[in-house]
Amino acid sequence: MKLIFRPYSKTSFGLSLGLTIFYLSCFVIIPLSSLVFKSANLGWSGLLEVFSEDRIQKALILSFGAGGVAAIINLFVGFLFAWVLVRYDFPGKRILDSLVDLPFTLPTAVAGIALTTIYSPKGWIGQFFEPLGIKIAYTPAGIVIALVFIGFPFVVRTVQPILEELPKELEESAFCLGASRFQTFTKVILPELIPSLLTGTSMAFARGIGEYGSVVFISGNLPGKTEILPLLIVTKLEQYEYAKATGIALLMLVLSFTIMLAINFFQNRASRRLG
Amino acid sequence: MKTKSKFLRSLAIFLLSSVAAFSVYADDVLLNVSFDPTRELYEDVNKHFIDSWKKKTGKGLTIQQSHGGSGKQARAVIDGLEADVVTLALAYDIDSIVNNSGAISKEWEKEFPHHSVPYYSTIVFLVRKGNPKAIKDWDDIVKPGIGVITPNPKTSGGARWNYLAAWGFAKKKYGTEAKATEFVKALYKNTSVLDTGARGSTTTFVQRGIGDVLLAWENEAELAISESKKANGGNSQLEVVYPSASILAETPVAVVEKVTAKKGTTELAKAYLNFLYTKEGQEIVAKHFFRPNDAAVLKANASKFPKINLFDVRSIEGSWAAAHKKHFADGGLFDSIYGEAKK
């Protein structure tokens, strides 16, 4: 067989696809399918029993609820950040820009410990809320704060490049045609950004559901109140209940995957409409 | 000329380092898989054991330590971590290794003296300076309005000892299981944070200033006090309170025979664990605030270890397996406590 160098062709499609699938199998498909096999030990009735446990349902609502609230906060805050970073010039902009990535690089446990220290009743910020009767650390509010922290770079980093490449002419022509600033924003700029905003928010959401490191410190871990799903998995493992642990993991996998699929679907529709 | 000498130098360094690497390799290597609060203890034990081993056999020895939550450590061994010995927080964790992997003999409790427990500890109260809430005994911490800090028994070995200490106290004092159940329910109603491990709880209590009383290992409490002294110029912000009775928290050891047979370290591993029972070993144990099993050493350190009524798991629940099944397994008493406490 002769190998001919043809730039930008599909000559080695077979090889590239093979390698891609091999890697995907080793790191994603096989590990995740082992989840299915391990929890298969339980059988349907066992799985149903796990899912109908009161604690698991409460943790499920908490994990997805807190993840959802945090994702929505991130949507607004992240958008504002991206807007400021793209549209304005000011001293220290570069530093601010690199600070955004910090939650990506920082070990989440560090973030969890730092947030707990600050928001606990004796902490810098927590002490001002304590007299008002508002508790942040060791309540669902603390969980939301941790999830906002770890999720917000996703929105900034997906919206920023799109905003940067938005042609100036679009806004100029809108202005020439007599659109107000508000109309330009809602009718011209925002539709362009919706797919990336959706992606960023859904990634922040997905990350939030599975987040363990930062949350276990600030949540207080009270069963039925502030206990998150990933902690329940650890709890089951600690009791050598391997099948039950993987059962919960499987539940999370299916739910996350369904949500991601749904979001992808909406995102595709939104970008198609843009044409 | 210069390049040549540079070359020779790097060659020499390479040879030396490979010899060094080889000699390390030639040493026997022992891996001790243990739980969190024993980190400082085994650093000390290992130093002494390596010396005595060298004196006895003339051979060098490297001992590696691994620390973490007791249950997590046991799981690592089950999943294939090549530990020569395990020194864990509860017998239940060693039993789990026996049942899930067969790497340890079923008869492990008979291998060494005192049910293979070279040292033990107990659960005490850590309170703030001056004991502002006047906490003297278990009855005081279940009163409404007292903030109790303890880790989650589902994830922490130490927390299971805390729970069983409270349960055992109530069962002995009030006689019935129903009363004891009420007692632990009241206790967990007073908790606002359940950390995943003992160290985490200590941090919550000491650093974050949450709660009025921390249920802690005796050695963990002593460690927190000495840290507090260091931070506040010799004045501790914390005090230890010894309740009228507490649990005999047995921390067992075992040789992982499946691994040592393969590596040929069985004798060494046995000698290592036996060292813990020697006078020297027991003194190191006492130095790190674990209670030694040797009566003479315990007596010599009487000022460190106030007398306290201790009851063991066997006397309240028969065995660890039974205690686990009744209290901590899914659907057990602990689950039902939270099922009702939160309403």
UniProtKB/TrEMBL annotation, chain A:
Protein name per UniProt: Sulfate transport system permease protein CysT
Mode of membrane association: Multi-pass membrane protein
Gene Ontology CC annotation, any one: plasma membrane
Function: Part of the ABC transporter complex CysAWTP (TC 3.A.1.6.1) involved in sulfate/thiosulfate import. Probably responsible for the translocation of the substrate across the membrane.
Taxonomic placement: Bacteria, Pseudomonadati, Spirochaetota, Spirochaetia, Leptospirales
Gene3D superfamilies, sorted: MetI-like
UniProt KW keywords: Membrane, Sulfate transport, Transmembrane, Transmembrane helix, Transport
Gene designation per UniProt: cysT
Family membership noted in the UniProt record: Belongs to the binding-protein-dependent transport system permease family. CysTW subfamily.
UniProt GO molecular function: ABC-type sulfate transporter activity
Domain of life: Bacteria
Chief subcellular location: membrane
Domain ABC transmembrane type-1 per the UniProt entry, residue ranges: 60-263
Cell compartment(s), UniProt: Cell membrane
PROSITE patterns: ABC_TM1 (PS50928)
Residue ranges of the TM segments: 12-38, 59-84, 104-124, 136-156, 245-266
SUPFAM superfamilies xrefs: MetI-like
Quaternary state and interactors: The complex is composed of two ATP-binding proteins (CysA), two transmembrane proteins (CysT and CysW) and a solute-binding protein (CysP).
Automatic annotation (TrEMBL), chain B:
GO molecular function per UniProt: molecular carrier activity; sulfur compound binding
PANTHER family noted in UniProt: SULFATE-BINDING PROTEIN
Keywords, alphabetical: Periplasm, Signal, Transport
Organism of origin: Leptospira langatensis
Family, per entry: Belongs to the prokaryotic sulfate-binding protein family.
Family annotation (InterPro entries): Sulphate/thiosulphate_BS, Thiosulph/SO4-bd
CDD domains named among the record's database cross-references: PBP2_CysP
UniProt signal peptide: 1-26
Gene3D superfamilies, sorted: Periplasmic binding protein-like II
A biological process term (GO) from this entry: sulfate transmembrane transport
Protein name: Sulfate ABC transporter substrate-binding protein
Coiled-coil positions: none
Major subcellular site: periplasm
GO annotation, cellular component aspect: periplasmic space
Subcellular location: Periplasm
Pfam families assigned to the protein according to its UniProt record, in alphabetical order: SBP_bac_11 (PF13531)
